[in-house]
């Protein structure tokens, strides 16, 4: 997608805040633990390479991505640390993974069997992290017998495979009720009984487990949403105050007009002026990731909260103004202040979703500017 540089709509990312979040998490971790920065999905919308570089400066020793291309982009940016592709990758791409020294999640024996001849032919070695499905129901070995088969296969083919890691993923580490989390942890320990020689990396913690279940174990924390200063639980559990959001989204008024009673606003005329009222137009829409369902939400215009009226269009939306504002008045859609009315958490709650989804949906058309 083309980046809209000639429009007053931009995302600001404070890399120093991201570094501080990582440094604080490192102080909470055990001495033997490493932090892998989860930078998949364009670093949750913040920008893959700038965030990865900042994370490295702050002490991250590895990265997690979701697709191979994200890992390749990190390598091409000069990052030499461990990069783990968390998702299942196409078996025919194994030589490509090996070429870029990317580690990959493996959740079944078939994958290993399929990629083995390819790697043998090219004389390459693939770094493998075995995924254990302890209750997420997504990818991974679910019983000791199948895990053992994979372990044996890896052991028989050490020229083509490096058994580098083993991991699981919690589905409820961000919940008050810890029952299922504990079941998953117990399941992990049970599966681990068949692993005679532990690989270099054993990892179970996402942000939620790292924050609220510090004793969950493993020697790597896969640190995602909280690196960006956000609460994995939404508002269910309290996130330490040291973690601060790093991203804001701003624009400005490009049109201001006075409506007469009965004038309609937006597609479908879902808003009709009841009296003489002021209306402003902001050049941001759902093509930028500003969702159509934000109609009715309040953004900050020149320091005053103003309601979005009418449907959000593809590239613009309208706000009801309490009085006339000059053109180019600043509009804050998302604030990096945790407790501001336009916090990411409030936007997510309004849209009936999670901060992750709002962030990942911010499109490439919106330029990212970085504060160091
Ligand atoms: C396997 C895995 N580990 C870690 C993370 C990071 O999670 P969080 O952003 O909640 O820290 C994710 C994110 O979806 C994931 O899929």
UniProtKB/TrEMBL annotation:
Pfam families: Ala_racemase_C (PF00842), Ala_racemase_N (PF01168). The keyword Kinase does not apply. InterPro entries: Ala_racemase, Ala_racemase/Decarboxylase_C, Ala_racemase_C, Ala_racemase_N, Ala_racemase_pyridoxalP-BS, PLP-binding_barrel. Substrate binds at residues 138, 314. Keywords: Isomerase, Pyridoxal phosphate. Pathway: Amino-acid biosynthesis; D-alanine biosynthesis; D-alanine from L-alanine: step 1/1. It catalyses: L-alanine = D-alanine. The keyword Chaperone does not apply. The active site is at residues 40, 267. GO terms for molecular function: alanine racemase activity. The modification N6-(pyridoxal phosphate)lysine is found at residue 40. Its cofactor is pyridoxal 5'-phosphate. Residues 246-371 form the Alanine racemase C-terminal domain. Its EC number is 5.1.1.1. Belongs to the alanine racemase family. Catalyzes the interconversion of L-alanine and D-alanine. May also act on other amino acids. This is Alanine racemase. It comes from Ligilactobacillus faecis. The gene is alr.
